[in-house]
Amino acid sequence: MQKILYIEWMKVRSYRAFWILAGLFVVCVFGLNYIAFAIHASVSEKTGKEVGQALLGGPFDYPDVWNTLCWMSGWLLFIPGLIVITIVTNEYTFRTHRQNIMDGWTRTQFITVKLLWVVVLSLLAVLSALLSVLLFGAFGGTSFTVAGMQSLVYLFVESLTYMLVALLMGTLIRRSGLAIGMFFLYLFVFKYVLSLTLNHYTGEFQLGDYMPVSISDTLLSFPFLKPALKGKLPSPPPVYVLLLGSAVYMALFYWIMLRRIKTADL
């Protein structure tokens, strides 16, 4: 297995797009969180601290800052998703997957080692969010606390879900441009249409919240205007249900990819 991991690293080490996209993701996490922080500070200053606190809450104060910055970071998970799609589709473009299997890799090893990048990029998302919390939380009006730190776990689960969807798209479609297009369509169009439609017709059951990707998104709540929106938004499902549902989807995605790689022609 160590040799397989080394070969996988050698494939990516000199791949410029990987480093550019990974760096872009980290920069965008800090940039997006800074924009949100600056806007909130500006609004609070104009309305007055007490009025702003009553209307907007304290999304950048501990413990809420954990949820806020993890929620914000979740909007950028499509970037590491692009990395995953590019890595797996390059295997098919340059036929390296065929060479690896001819050299003795099993098909299960081929798809399983790609999960390494899913985990690594998910950890990168968590680390970026953690550093953002430490940075922007220091400017809040409360002392540091680990209360609310579970949001990092929720972000990790959300990241795994996004990355596995990207890996699924790349494995099924095999063409970089088409896989990226379908990935974007699902994340930014189909996901919302499906969830909103199901929520509309299922009333209090809110089945749309249990759809792929949407279920892990629900782990992190909308962090702004909490005082103004209190009691006006539907209650999310229990956390254990969301975590269990996310795990089921991830297992399903892995099974589909495994079936695809085992039955498809090289």
TrEMBL record:
Keywords of the record: Membrane, Transmembrane, Transmembrane helix
Bilayer-spanning residue ranges: 18-39, 75-94, 115-139, 151-170, 177-194, 239-258
Keyword Transmembrane helix annotated: yes
Signal peptide residues on this chain, from the entry's feature table: none
Keyword Transferase: no
Superkingdom of origin organism: Bacteria
Protein name: ABC-2 family transporter
The organism of origin for this protein: Dinghuibacter silviterrae
